[in-house]
Amino acid sequence: MRKVALAGLAAALGVVLAGCGGSGSGSDKSTVTLWMYPVIGDQAKNQAFWAKIEKDFEAKNATIDLKVDHQPWEGRQEKITTALASKKGFDLVVLTPDQIPQYAKQGALAPVDDVVAAAKTSFLPNALTALSMEGKLYGVPIYQTITAPIYNKKAFTDAGVTGFPQTWEEFKAAAPKLAAKKVAILDYPGAPEVSLNQSFYPLLWGNGGSVFAADGKSVAFNGPEGIGALQFLLDLQKLGGLPENAATKKNEIEGGALAGGKTAVYHAATALQVAQLGAAIGDDNVGVGLPLENAKKVAFGIPGGLVLAKHSPNAEAAKKFAAFLSAPEASAALAKESGFFSARTDVTVPGISPVVQEFAKSLEYAFPGDTHPMARQVMALIAPEIQAALLGQKDAKTALDDAAKEANALLANGG
């Protein structure tokens, strides 16, 4: 009986000790759990890439067990919020700049400046800035997105327009010529569910405006710059320069108006969307330009950052993986498979197409948007007011003033 009792005690102690190891992997190993999202669109390629990353990292770090937990985009925000509040679920997660402020403000994230310190000058400066808050880096950049205008060349040729318009005035000048061919110059997606980062905001920023005031306590999008940006859209609309369904149009390329020759330019496309357009009309009929300009050139582009949960019991092991994934070799591989860009300046992505190389020219104008804890909530208030203006229900000033009134009340109440 005594031997049985001792054996039972030993087994129980074994369970307890195992539970004290990194996320239950045993005391001899630290477990690092990464919540990863499908930045690689092809599911098979996505699984294969991360399986190789796990294998390669663990081969170099025998005392660390890396677990890549594949997560869906749907419900992302709510699930991350719950995990950080309950202090369980992941050690590392991929976040974008607009998500970081609210969690950093809550004290749920740990700074990661030391991870990039040795190679800081090899990262895109705007990527590091975008993932920082109050002088501390909260995300290790692992990829960079960028948007740029894409053009249906044939639409311009058929309308007798030479060269691609790049300024607001050039757009307004060319709009009637394309409208005469029953083509709207700007493929504007005005449906409220479309992110303003890929519709209205690039025009606001390009006109020198911002969503929030400098102190973050009020909004600024209803200033002259914002009103001017919305008026630009309404002016184009009067010239036949927007699709008839602009107020409800979603952001689609495949089977959409741009691929069908009914519109001529989408001003905030991704590299994936230019590939879709090329597949539909032929790469030779696709043009890529620099950001539309009025006051300045601004392109929406965000870095994806590996963010460390402050509650992680294996922070040092997690940082080792963050350094591994952001190093040149892994960074180049991720860029190749995802179609995004590396967040480093010392990386050459193999097999990059000439069209994607054109997109890379806009990286210097990349702007992640106005980072603010209430950024997403404020966006949700602006979108329906812009839609109302496009439907002819409100003028530009009234629409944005109404949105600002609601947004400022939201900020005053702390959300």
Set down the secondary structure blueprint.
Blueprint: H1 2-20, E1 30-36, H2 43-60, E2 64-70, H3 76-86, E3 92-95, H4 100-105, E4 109-110, H5 113-116, H6 125-130, E5 132-133, E6 136-137, E7 140-144, E8 148-152, H7 153-158, H8 168-179, E9 184-186, H9 201-206, H10 224-238, E10 263-269, H11 271-281, E11 286-288, E12 299-300, E13 303-309, H12 315-326, H13 328-338, H14 354-360, E14 366-367, H15 375-390, H16 396-412
Parallel strand pairs: 1-2, 1-3, 9-10, 12-14
Antiparallel strand pairs: 3-13, 4-13, 5-6, 7-13, 8-10, 8-11
Structural class of the helix and strand makeup? Answer: alpha/beta
End-to-end separation in angstroms reads: 63 Å
**Weakly predicted, low-confidence segments:** 1-26
Helical residue percent?
Answer: 40-55%
Secondary structure tally, helices: 16
Major sheet: 6 strands, mixed
Mean pLDDT: 91
User: Could you tell me the strand content as a percent range?
Assistant: 5-15%
Order of helices and strands: HEHEHEHEHHEEEEHHEHHEHEEEHHHEHH
The count of strands amounts to: 14
State the shape. globular
How large is the radius of gyration? 24 Å
Task: Provide structural commentary.
The chain is of the alpha/beta class. It has 16 helices and 14 strands. Strands 1, 2, 3, 4, 7 and 13 form a six-stranded mixed beta sheet that branches. A four-stranded mixed beta sheet has the order 9-10-8-11. The longest helix is centred in the N-terminal third of the chain and has 19 residues, at 2-20.
